Amino acid sequence: MTAQFDRPLAPLEQYARLHPVGYQWRVAWLTILGYAYPLALFGTLAVLLWPFSQYYTIAILGGLAKLFWLKATPPEGIAIDRTQYPLLFQELDALQTQLRTPPIHNVLLTDDLNAAILQQPRLGLLGWYRNHLILGVPLMQVSSPEQFRSTLAHELGHLSGQHSRITNWVYRVRYAWETLSRQNEHQPSLLLLPFFRWYEPFFRTYSFILSRSHEYQADRCAADCAGVENAADDLMQLSVRGRHWYKEYWTQFLRTHGLAETPPDSAISGLLQALSQPLPPQLAEACRAVALARPMDDDDTHPSLRERLTHYNLVDRPVPQPPPVTAAQHLLSNNLTHVITELDRRWQLQQTPSWQQRRHFVQEEARLLDKLNGAATLTPEQQWKRAMLTAPQNPEGAIALLKTALTDHPDHPNLNYDLGCLLLEQNQIEAFRYLQVAFRANPVALAWSFEAICGYLYANGREQDAASYLAQFEQVQDLRRRSEHECEQLKPKDRWQHHGLDPDEVAQITATLQQYPELREAHLVRKAITSLPNFPFYVLALRSGLNRQNPLQTLQGEGLVAAVRSRLCLSGSVKILPIAEGSSPLYRAIRRVVGAKLNLLQ
Predict the structure, then answer these.
(1) Where are the alpha helices (DSSP H) in 460-599?
(2) Which residue has the higher pLDDT, 72 or 275?
(3) Which domains does the chain have, with CATH numbers?
C-alpha cells in the first residue's frame, strides 16, 4: 500500500502502445478480479461457517463487508447553487449537454489553485456515484472566461459519455481502491491483508497508463469545447504564471506574518491580487522553460505540460498576459466579494489550530539563532544552520556567514549550494562558482535550483547558457526520480551504515536531542543510496514516551518530528523517523549499526 509503484512503467507503456486493445482487456480482467476475490471469499466463508453458527457467520461477513465500504467524507468548500451563480451554471449546463455527462450533484468553491471532479461511490466498489465539482477560485482568477471553459470541460470530460466505458469504469474503480487502501492501512484484516498488499499496488500500476490516457481524452474535451488555443493558454496560465505567483505569495506571506499571534484574515484576498499580476518578459520565459522541462511524474496520472501542449501542437505557445476580465469576475459576478470574504474566514479558521504551534517553532528558531550567534565556536553544520536561520530576514548577512564558513570547509556541498542559491536571489554571477561545487558532489541538486538558475540567465540575456542548463536538467531527471525513490522507501534490508559524522557534530546533535524529555532512544545512521553513492542521506530514528518533566506537554509523532527538525543542525538530507514500536524490523535493522546509538543521558 505504498505511494510508489512496485513495477516500472516503461514496459507497460511499450505494451500499451503496441497492443492497445489487449492492454485494455488485461486491465478490465484485472479490475474484475478486484470484485471476484472478495465475493469468492464471502461466499466460501458463508458456505463453511453457516452450518455451525449463523450468528458468527453474519458477524464475520459483516466485518469483512465493512472493510470494502468506502467512507464517503464530503469534500470541503463553499457549496453554491444556480440561483446565486446563474452564469457559472449556464456554462456547466452547456458543457454537460455537449459532453453527455451524468448530473453534477454538488459544486464547491475552494482556495486551491486547482479544479477537480470527485466521484464518491455510495455503495463501495458497487458504485452509485455522487459527483462533486470542485473549483478553486485562485485558478479562476488566473484564467479568462474562455480559458477557464477548457478547465471545466476537462473536468467534466472525466465523466463524458463520449469515452470508452472500460476507461471510465477503470478510472472510477482505481479511485475506489486507492481510497480503500488508505482506509484500511492501519486496520487490515488477516484474511484480506495478503490480497490488499498484492492487488492494490499492482492494479494501480497496471491501470496507470489507461488512467493517463483518460487525461488525454479529457484534454480533447477541453479543446473541443473551448478551442485548442484557449485550452493551451489555460494550461500555460496555471503552470507558469499561476504557479509562480502562488509560490512567491505564500513564501513572502509566511515571512511577513510568521510571528503574528493569529493567522491574518485576508490571506486569500491577498493571494487573488497577486495572481492578477503579469510576469516580466524574462521571468515569464524562464518560468515557461522550467514548466516545459518538468517531466511527467510517475505518481501523477496527469501528463507533463510539454506532453499536453504537444498533443495540441502548440508547444511553442508563449505565456499569455493576465486577462482583462478573469473567470472569477465573470462567472461569480456580484458574489465574488462575498466568496473572497468567506474564503478568507475559512482559511483563518482552518489555520488557527496549527498557527500557534508554527509560531512556537519560529520563536524556537529565533532563540536557536541567538544561541548560535553567541557561541564561541561552531561546527560546520552549526555554521550552516546559523546562515539558514539568518537568510529569511537578512540574506546579505547569511551570504557573509556562508562565505566565512567556506574558508575552512571549501568543498562542503551544502554550504556551497545554499550560498549559490542566495547569490542567485541577489542576481550575483559568482553564484555559479559555488553551485558547480555542489553539483559535482550531487548532480541532482541542479534539479532543485533549476528554476532560479534559468530565472537569472534569462533575466541577464544568456539564453544559450539557459539552454545548456536545460539539457543538463533533463539528463538528471531519471537520476532524481531513482534517488528520491530510494530515500522514500526505507526497508530493513537496505544498506545501513555508520553516519560518518565528526565527533563534534555528533555531540551537538546529541545535545539538541537531550532537550526533549520525551525521547527514550535515538539512533543516527546513513542509508547508502545506490543511484547517488556520494549523497549523504541520514535517518534519525526516535523512540519516545511521556515527557518526564511535564506529561501534559508530551510531543508525539509529527509534532515531535517538527520540533526536532527546527533545532537540528544537520545540512544533509535527513529523515526523522518516529518509532511507535521498538521491535519493528526496520528499527531493529537500524539499531544493529555499530555506533548508531546516541547517548541521551545528561
Answers:
(1) 463-475, 477-488, 503-513, 557-567, 585-591
(2) 275
(3) 235-324 (no CATH), 353-487 (1.25.40.10), 496-591 (3.30.70.1350)
